[in-house]
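Dear support,

I submitted the protein below through the web form. The confirmation email said the job was done, but the results page showed an empty box. After a refresh the structure appeared. I'm attaching both so you can tell me whether what I see now is the final result or a partial one.
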Amino acid sequence: MLNVRSVRAKLGFGAFRQYDRAALLALCAAENVKQQPAVWIAGGHPSWEQLLRTIYQVRCNLFHGEKSPQSFRDRYLVFASDLTSALVPMDAKLPKRMSTTCRA
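What the results page shows now:
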């Protein structure tokens, strides 16, 4: 999950429209764009903190970024995050480093 603020800062505001997904991911890797979950290996199971940070990143991207109802992938990510967040108790202990702003 890419951090929209970081993408815009490093690749420009129109990067999501300018590049296809493969090209965008390659550029993001080259420019060290922030993403969640951090230090996750594809195919592995994310930790509780990684899961919460990823859901929070979806929320930030939804409100401040490039999520589009026309994109199947974007709709799927928001739907899956909503389902997952419904399973999290409201009084769940969040990681101490979770900020209250969208800077993850």
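Response: this is the final, complete result; the empty box was a page-load delay. Residues 4-86 form one domain.
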